[in-house]
User: Which sequence fits this backbone?
């Protein structure tokens, strides 16, 4: 029996219309799909792809607990990888649904690390939150020889300050409960008027506003963009 | 007469299958499309979208010369913006085709700067070369609290070295004739065995290899990825 192929399929930032044609076709033809879900709760990835999933598809759900400790989440990926391996061994392809892009802060890399040495894995890139937020904010990220720095919000304030200073464009992901700290850092650098807050980009609940007006408690799916580039007119 | 809307539509890295459903629909319904082309030559953006463009669509071609001086290219965008504005004023929507993502080192920002204050502009994000190259190389870009730095290849060697040292994942765009310089910088940092070269990702002529084996003269559409992150298994 030839084992199946594991597809890690990026679904884009949330609007189902931003799914690629390749991802749509793979999902529409899938016999087995897999995806992470908040333990006991919803799956954002499945919600994006909902209109594409065949009724007949078998669904492997990975219940990933949101804890500070890494072990519970890793145990969920261990179990998910085992279930996926079993399906692949039976000859079925498995389509793993990934919000955004599978390799850009995505949990698919945990499955990739567990399975890529034993099975054929194809990663289908998706529209990342990075460019989706820039599009929705109307802010070009980078032109010509400008540098872009991508920073996760949980980093310490001093490190954030040092790195924000050295780049023309900065995207800060995973803002969540770190918003007040991040706003303080950006304000002290004199960049508050160049900073935009984007929440749930491309979804119906999307919000785009100056960082100065952003809520102190941001959702996980939010981003801060700081663009310092010159006017690109010339 | 209500003016039309200008759509800046990201087409992804090259494989027409990586066009989003939204981009495909906008192009398929377009009465007027616009795109850049190398002066007197081909348009990569048009080639990606070729199977979607209606035969009846009017095409506004911006012949952009590849010169060191900026003025000739800027004059091409001036002329393109004027032609697009005329179409918008007549009430037609205009779909501008953009390789990759419109706001990620894309030329659409030059049109955006010229037209966004006078017309409704919607940017439709696309799969960027960044995540497409990572997908094709099988290299996760970033997990958890890792930082990603995006650097254009033409930057001076000293600046590149300083910035590569400070990030876990580095993507170097616009490699082209800078490849030998970039390889030297990465080698001196002791990172040559962590560096992968990707050329024309997702196209039939795609090439992925260790940077050590990359050609000295790389095409413009090539990238170097350096990933220093720990094994993401745990």
Assistant:
């Amino acid at each position: 029996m030839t084992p199946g192929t594991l597809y890690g399929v990026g679904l884009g930032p949330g609007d189902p219309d931003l799914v690629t044609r390749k991802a749509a076709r793979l999902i529409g033809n899938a016999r087995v799909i897999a995806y992470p879900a908040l333990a006991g709760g919803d799956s954002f990835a499945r919600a994006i792809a909902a209109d594409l999933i065949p009724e007949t598809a078998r669904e492997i759900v990975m219940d990933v607990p949101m804890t500070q400790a890494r072990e519970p989440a890793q145990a969920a990926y261990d179990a998910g990888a085992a279930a996926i391996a079993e399906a692949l061994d039976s000859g079925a392809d498995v389509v793993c649904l990934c919000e955004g892009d599978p390799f850009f802060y995505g949990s698919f890399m945990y499955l990739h690390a567990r399975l890529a040495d034993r099975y054929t894995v194809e990663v289908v890139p998706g529209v990342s939150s990075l460019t989706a937020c820039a599009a929705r904010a109307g802010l070009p990220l980078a032109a010509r020889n400008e540098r872009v720095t991508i920073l996760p919000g949980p980093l310490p304030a001093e490190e954030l300050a040092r790195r924000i200073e050295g780049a023309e464009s900065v995207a800060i992901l995973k803002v969540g409960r770190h918003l007040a700290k991040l706003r303080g850092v950006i304000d002290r650098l004199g960049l508050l008027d160049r900073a935009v807050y984007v929440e749930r980009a491309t979804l119906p609940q999307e919000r785009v506003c100056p960082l100065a007006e952003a809520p102190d408690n941001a959702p996980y799916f939010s981003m801060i963009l700081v663009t310092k580039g010159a006017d690109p007119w010339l």
